[in-house]
Amino acid sequence: MSQAKTIQEGHLTGWLPRLVENQGPRFLQIADALQAAVADGSLTPGDRLPPQRQLAARLDVDLTTVTRAYDEARRRNLLEGRGARGTYVAAPKVELTSILDLSMNTPPPPAGVDFDDLLKQGLSQVLMRADAELLMTYHLAGGSDSDRKAGATWLAPMFGHLDARQVIVCPGAQAAIAASILALTAPGDIILAEPASYPGLLAAATRFGRRVIAVAADQHGMVPGMLEQACRQHQPALVYLNPTLQNPTAITMPKHRRQELAGIARRCKVRIVEDDPYWLLADAPPPPVATFAPEQVVYISTLSKCLTPGLRVAFVLIRESQERERFLDALRSFALMTAPLTAALATQWILDGSASRLMEGVRNEARLRHRMARTILAGRYSGTGDGLHVWLELPAYWNSAQLARAARSEGIAVTPAQAFATGTESVNAIRISLGSIKDRGRLQAGLQRLSHLLAQRSITPESASSPGTDTTSPP
């Protein structure tokens, strides 16, 4: 073997990792080593990697491990296959968009969790255990018995043991909110909500001809005295609450506040829709409002905020049987059923523990990202260290709509407070979502760019007093 060839082979194998027990799956260790070698220049675009069998022998692992490692590296855009010529280090992927999206509230991809493998295994188990024809036909709304049992298991951390017959399976939380409005209110009815609230509520209420009226909130959420006053004044049909890591303010309502609001709802005979997508992501959250007024509350928990947005499954707890029937009738009017394959995957993941593992990964990744935001945004950060978003109140020289436009011109998408306003007034703030940018490095760059922008004075003097009109409605 010539000296030149020896040098070349040393260059192409010098990145090989020393596989360590208890440091995650071996295929991920190999893929991480590849990524590190590309990042530090040890491997460059066009370098040919060893054949998979040869690499497996060098590392003393089976061929499947190397195949999965190469597949993961391709998913990260590190490698490209050239047929019989072998596998090569890929040229850097050109970003077609420079926008760093801090506007969409989605769970971050968890480190150390092979989502592709989780999905393949879950679907494989579903297809092995279920009749394929049943997965591709119509089902009754509300979910199968097994799906409802999975829902009861999902809700057990909040409520303990539940009768699965009280659980309804829905195609996402937005569908559950819409069905609740149709089932519990009539056209022209009033719905009470906090001054900054989920845009999906506002969209559904407006479309159905209901009015949303704001009830004052403080640092603990909706103010009990103001709710009681609003109930007497407006005779509302419904109260909407998002009490845990509230969207957008990230406030978690304490236990005593939840108890007070539940008591008012009972006295005033008004129903509550408790939209609680972030409870399982929160650090030691109080019991849901529904535990203090079980017959008074429709409780909604979605998987798309804890696991992945594409898993459009929500579980709705309704204790009273006639009310469940009204809810199902309303749901059938616009969403006949949850897609059976999606529901079956959700059930499989919940019952085999995959959902818990994925959620724990999301929770850990979210907390890491909050630490990053706290460091970069310094005194402006007011988050709780968990959940998916941060609510930033702005300095007087910026208003939220104007800052959103300025950020967009800098390649950053954020959500201004106007998108969440239930009344004519809104606070001067923006919501920053920490999960929608997959790569931590790009998230860090976006937060740093935003921090620099916040430190600057607004570009035009008159714009600081202009309310702006950028009121997009993100999830």
TrEMBL record:
CDD domains: AAT_like (cd00609), WHTH_GntR (cd07377)
Domain HTH gntR-type as annotated: residue spans: 24-92
Keyword rRNA-binding part of the UniProt annotation: no
InterPro entries on file: Aminotransferase_I/II_large, HTH_trans_reg/aminotransferase, PyrdxlP-dep_Trfase, PyrdxlP-dep_Trfase_major, Tscrpt_reg_HTH_GntR, WH-like_DNA-bd_sf, WH_DNA-bd_sf
Alphabetical list of Gene3D superfamilies matching this protein: Type I PLP-dependent aspartate aminotransferase-like (Major domain), Winged helix-like DNA-binding domain superfamily/Winged helix DNA-binding domain
Pfam families to which the protein is assigned, alphabetical: Aminotran_1_2 (PF00155), GntR (PF00392)
Keywords for the protein's UniProt record, in alphabetical order: Aminotransferase, DNA-binding, Pyridoxal phosphate, Transcription, Transcription regulation, Transferase
Record's compositionally biased regions (Polar residues): 457-475
GO MF terms held by the record: transaminase activity
Stretches the record annotates as Disordered: 456-475
Stored PANTHER family: HTH-TYPE TRANSCRIPTIONAL REGULATORY PROTEIN GABR
Family to which this protein belongs: In the C-terminal section; belongs to the class-I pyridoxal-phosphate-dependent aminotransferase family.
Name by which UniProt lists this protein: PLP-dependent aminotransferase family protein
Native source organism of the sequence: Duganella zoogloeoides
Upper classification of the organism: Bacteria, Pseudomonadati, Pseudomonadota, Betaproteobacteria, Burkholderiales
